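Database export, one record per block. Field names are fixed; values are copied verbatim from the stored entry.
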Amino acid sequence: MIPASLLLVLAWQFAPPLPATAHKVVAAGTVMIVSGDRGEVRRLFALAHRESRWTPGARSDAGACGVWQVVGKWQGTTCKALRENAVHSTLTAIRVWRAAGRACGRAGQWTCWSTGHYSKAGREARRLYNERRW
């Protein structure tokens, strides 16, 4: 059995472009290695399934790209990098997912992810989260 960390190193070294099946395996492995929380792993897997059905080349009309459907211009990356580099795409998605959790709380995390922290729905989720903390 090949350790998951070795898969990550190989994927990083030979990243662009990975076949779709390998991209899924590397993305899933990255999530399991980076996230120590099993609940977060399940939520991220559900997110990838909901956003793109684990399709690396997916692109939305809003400009979101890759398995995780992250808008590259807001994260300082390119759509090409998000679609082709599984490790980069997954680490970017985890960073954005955790920022959504910090901004809107766990209950509003899906809303902040899908609409953005500063959209009307994201502001409402943040407001509700901040009221509950007091």
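Remark 1: The mean pLDDT is 81.
Remark 2: The domain at 4-105 is CATH 1.10.530 (Lysozyme).
End of record.
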